[in-house]
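Researcher: Let's continue the batch. This sequence belongs to DUF726 domain-containing protein, and it's 633 residues. Same format as the previous ones, please.
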Amino acid sequence: MATSSTLSQTQRYAAGALLALALRQAQIHQSVLLGSHSLFDDAPLAADDDAAAARHLWTHDSHSLLRPVLRFLEIDHKAWPGVETTAATSEHKHHIGAFLRKVFEDEDDGEAAAAERSEHELALAKAVDAMAMGLENDAVVVAADELTINRDVVRIDQDDGGGEGSSSAEETPGGSRSNKDYRKMAVLYMLLSACVADVNMAEEGMGSPRIRKGYDARHRVALRLLATWLDVKWIKMEAIEIMVACSAMAAAKEEEQSRGNESPNSRWENWKRGGIIGAAALTGGTLMAISGGLAAPAIAAGFTALVPTLHTLVPLIGASGFAAIATAAGHTAGSVAVAASFGAAGAGLTGTKMAKRIGSVKEFEFKTIGENHNQGRLAVAILVTGFAFTEEDYLKPWEGWKTNLERYILQWESKHIIGVSTAIRDWLASRFAMELMREGAMQTVLSGIVSAFAWPAYLVSAADFIDSKWSIAIDRSDKAGKMLAEVLLKGLQGSRPVTLIGFSLGARVVFKCLQELAFLGNNEGIVERAVMIGAPVSDKGELWEPARKMVAGRFVNVYSTNDWILGITFRASLLTQGLAGIQAVDVPGVENVDVTELVVGHSSYLTLIKQILDQLELNTYYPVFYPCTPKSK
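Model: Same format as before. Here are the structure tokens for DUF726 domain-containing protein:
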């Protein structure tokens, strides 16, 4: 019978404690950006006796993020409060180093056991490598130094005891990777499995039940940070996500077949039974079944060479379990099945037909983009265009961006978006506007963010020409944002972390969605990352702070100080207060990225989205933007 992990009890405890520390640090970084302070300069922590403040911590039982993981890891429940207390301590730097050492220490349990454990961890590491290689063929290649930049910020200093755990993979004299590198894959696979497992805490009176089943965005952000501490490239974590998705589908299929014949605890044990060994056998032994609906050809090809190594693990999960996995993988409809396993309702995003329209919104539809559908992806991106001259422009800005996310385009109110974009273009094409641009008159609009009443008459008349169409588009973007929040709350994307990216009025849709999630309350685990580009949104902190809390990871405001057309069209009272699309937002935890050197005008975003997203390197945990040579004007 297969064990649920190759790790010892002490190693599992250390892994759970590391996840707890990562959860707490990720929460701190919502309001203290990496790089602005040392990683280890904590924001003030709540006093131990302040129950109300303590409940705010992600590691607190009220969020149901940590204790279900600890139970899955079979850690004694008497030790749980100690893990929670340690995660909230101001001395976490030293704890990280100590727990990393514990993870990599081998137990003295005999040569045979050690050899078996090494074999299993090696098989898992090879499977992860093969899948990551396949993913790289279809996505942006991760730079070799991706996790070494800003290492002084994110790496545990060796002087403080963290060097052993955070160093890169060692090389043996023969050139192969060390056992430590294989252990990293085992830890990450086990922790991800624990994060997505449906563990019912209420049955045994050990804490609050999980509010939302599936893969919480806060877990994914914490795993990003933990992967950084372990010096593991994120693309390998994405490979592990696909493997866990396959295992989850198999477990769901097996539970469906045996429903009514087993206790809840037995069903939970069935999910755990996949474990590391199950994943290795799954990725190797059921290669052909998976490649038909869950893995791209490049990934399947990468596994072919591994079958001789992994097929020996099949007996460890039993013939019936192996058959169930093969059946699940071969007869389910890809991402729909994965989404269903993680709480999706109905037909998913592409089947969305809003039963309840908000206001006068007439168009609100999701369309797939890219080749990552039907491949077991555990994270979703929703991309929102807000400036377009044709319906094709809703899709074009995102086509070149390579990512391993399952991507969807939101096409909304195209009649009004195209109408206002065309009106702006027509005015810019007029001889009068061309003359003003040559004289540099437009730049005076943004020089001091002056009131509309102080503008020259010709600028006021230009704004009036556009204003009626713009006002309607603003109104519809606000309503579309509320509808997007409704979609996410219904779980049509599955209980999978969501990345929201929008530009121009699409960025306002994203912002209004976040505001709505904040207004409705208790929705912190849905959105992992948000990027707003050229956003026609006020920069007032009281608007941004609630929205920031809805984003578990990076929240980026991309702006251009010379986007005068955005200033003209959004010239009313908000302009005097500040506008996010043309200046930095002074709110803790918001990354401000100045792309003035790239952006010639507001319409430039249509062709620059890929370049901007590539330079943001969203898969890094810490803020990144690499400026490049600006386009010639």
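Researcher: Any comment?
Model: The CA atoms of residues 339 and 540 lie 37 Å apart.
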